[in-house]
Design a protein that fits this description.
About 5% of the residues lie in helices and about 35% in strands. By secondary structure, it is mainly beta. The chain folds into two domains: about 150 residues, Spermadhesin, CUB domain (Jelly Rolls), CATH 2.60.120; about 240 residues, Beta Barrel (Thrombin, subunit H), CATH 2.40.10. The chain starts with about 25 loop residues before the first strand and ends in a 6-residue tail after the last strand.
Length: about 425
């Protein structure tokens, strides 16, 4: 089932005087990470700067669950409340990976920040996954609070977190800068005039928080972009198209050892400014999904096709983009993406695409000679390139396009048993 923030009712502890003060619940303080050193480690791991993913977080292994980390209370109505607080001092935001997650019928679970201003939940029996795993976040700041409530006579819950993802970059954290433009200055919000004719297509695009629980010094959680697409049967299956290299260490040019599991990734919809200018308030990160299965991939065209465990809920207002294998060169179109994990942006081109070869492994590619407006950067990997008919013709692979260097290359379309096999690179 999809994992999303319903926010229909606040957690039971909010404003309840019969419950222990939040300062009295157990706090687990994780080892201190130096963000500057993590940035340095990231620079060593990101030697392939032509790849357009962007590292942002580091896993801290934890062993936190109902049975070994707990503040339990029995309330006047005989229901029970479990709470826990986890802190990583220098984290700018955080995620949790749960290796065991099951909420029984009638119970509810939330995570939220220290100031009680950001709440994800309630998660109920409806959101349980068959694999009993879960990933949740982002929570802004260095701490996350967990709260589980079960009525009298309800039992059988299992909640255990195996990894805390410590964000060492200011992704999602507006308090650290005056604007949401963590990406370069030339990028254009999707609700600017350039996006007026692409209202449906922009609803397809989401941000990937590619979480990994691997704590090795050279392993990081990364940011990519993904698009919800239709299939030939048009049966509503929730397929996601992104880049195959998002599964791999950026130094693994041959994509030989997969280090990421899309089942642990968090997919964030509607992370965008509500107008052309950046809004004053924090854009919502509550439209989240967790859990996808790999259906097809190919390193030679750098495509990755995922199937979500369920369709996005109706309140996500999502749209499944169409795609084409037509070999004709598009004269104009757009790319829609999340550069550097920033709010959703749009880039436009108005010169006919050409063909070429690029990358390791070498791939046949489309070439966009120059962006008319906008560009791409790390975090844009996997983002869709649209033709003038509003159909996807490729997904971002890599390259050196950036603000001030708008030339790019994109990969040629291929097909296999009706599945889309595409790629896109920038140069």
């Amino acid at each position: 089932m999809p994992i999303f923030a319903q926010n229909t009712n606040p957690p039971l502890s909010f404003g309840n005087s019969s419950i222990l003060n939040p300062n009295q619940i157990q706090t687990i303080n994780l080892p201190t990470f130096n963000n500057s050193y993590l940035m340095y480690q990231d620079s060593l791991a990101s030697i392939n700067d032509s790849i357009k993913s962007s590292n942002f977080g580091k896993a801290i292994p934890i062993n936190c669950g109902m049975n070994n980390s707990r503040t339990w209370e029995t309330l006047p109505d005989s229901s029970k409340l479990w709470r826990l607080r986890i802190v990583s001092v220098n984290a700018l935001s955080n995620f949790l990976i749960f290796d065991s997650f099951f909420i029984p019928n009638g119970a509810s679970f939330y995570i939220y920040n220290d100031s009680l201003t950001q709440v994800l939940g309630a998660y109920t029996n409806d959101q349980n996954r068959n694999d009993h795993r879960m990933s949740l976040g982002p929570i802004i700041g260095n701490a996350v609070r967990l709260e589980y409530h079960q009525p009298k006579s309800v039992g059988g819950a299992s909640i255990h977190a195996s990894a805390f993802i410590h964000s060492f970059k200011p992704v999602f954290n507006k308090s650290l800068f005056n604007d949401f433009n963590t990406s370069s200055a030339c990028h254009i919000n999707v609700k600017c005039p350039e996006g007026d004719n692409w209202c449906n297509q922009r609803r397809s695009v989401a941000l990937i928080a590619g979480l990994t629980g691997n704590p090795s010094p050279d392993q990081f959680s990364k940011l990519c972009t993904v698009a919800l697409i239709t299939n030939e049967k048009r049966d509503g299956k929730p397929y996601f198209l992104t880049a195959n290299h998002c599964l791999f260490d950026s130094r693994d040019r041959n994509q030989s050892t997969m280090v990421e599991d899309p089942g642990d990734w968090v997919y964030i919809f509607n992370y965008q400014s509500q107008g052309c200018s950046n809004q004053a308030n924090q854009p919502s990160t509550s439209y989240i999904l967790s859990g996808a299965t790999i259906r097809a991939r190919n390193k030679n065209s750098d495509f990755l096709l995922l199937e979500l465990l369920a369709r996005p809920p109706g309140n996500f207002n999502s749209f499944a983009s169409g795609w084409t294998n037509d070999d004709g060169r598009s004269n104009n179109g757009v790319g829609i993406h999340h550069p550097d994990g920033d709010v959703k942006k749009i880039s436009t081109y108005d010169k006919k695409l050409s063909k070429g070869n690029w990358g390791t492994p070498i791939a046949k590619v489309w070439k966009v000679k120059e962006w008319k407006s906008g560009s791409t950067e790390g975090g844009s990997s996997g983002s869709p390139l649209y033709n003038s008919n509003g159909l996807i013709i490729g997904q971002l692979y890599g390259g050196k396009a950036a603000c001030g260097n708008k030339k790019m290359i994109s990969m040629e379309d291929l097909t296999n048993h009706g599945m889309i096999k595409m790629g896109l690179v920038i140069n």
